[in-house]
Design goal:
With 145 residues, the chain is an all-alpha fold. The chain is built from 5 helices and no strands.
Length: 145
């Protein structure tokens, strides 16, 4: 009888671990999908934000605020612990995010200095990096299945 209880307990624990990994995968996919959508929206808005800020200095605060929000989003995604199944995908995201953070930090420094042309910020690699990040969506979709 003890052996049956031990075997049953082992199966329950193993099954719970598999269920937990599936739950973690689903949560990760949902959070990453939300992030990729936010990054895509940022990309779509960025050039307009830069143009507005170049034309109207009062719009610089909006640009700066949006850059800081995106920086926070990136840091939150970087802090996620991916399920084992998504380790390679997460490493790619970290690489893209590192480049995006560099671009955002440079933009924030330029804004803080008040030097240079705001319109030149659109030439930073932020948009290209986020566009490349969007290529990972199909990989993310495969994790849902």
């Amino acid at each position: 009888m003890k052996n049956i209880i031990i075997a049953f307990s082992f199966l329950m624990l193993t099954g719970c671990g598999i269920l937990e990994e599936a739950n973690n995968s689903l949560t990760y996919v949902e959070e990453m999908t939300e992030y990729l959508n936010e990054a895509e929206q940022f990309t779509n808005d960025f050039q307009g934000l830069v143009e507005d800020a170049a034309a109207d200095p009062s719009a610089i605060d909006t640009l700066e605020s949006r850059l800081k929000e995106m920086k926070t989003e990136i840091q939150e995604i970087n802090d996620l612990t991916p399920p084992q199944l998504a380790d390679n995908l997460h490493q790619q995201v970290l690489e893209y995010n590192g480049r995006a953070l560099e671009g955002i930090d440079r933009a924030l420094v330029e804004i803080d200095k008040g030097e240079g042309q705001i319109s030149e910020l659109k030439d930073l690699e932020i948009v290209n990096t986020f566009n490349q990040l969007q290529d990972l969506k199909s990989n993310l979709e495969s994790l849902k299945q």
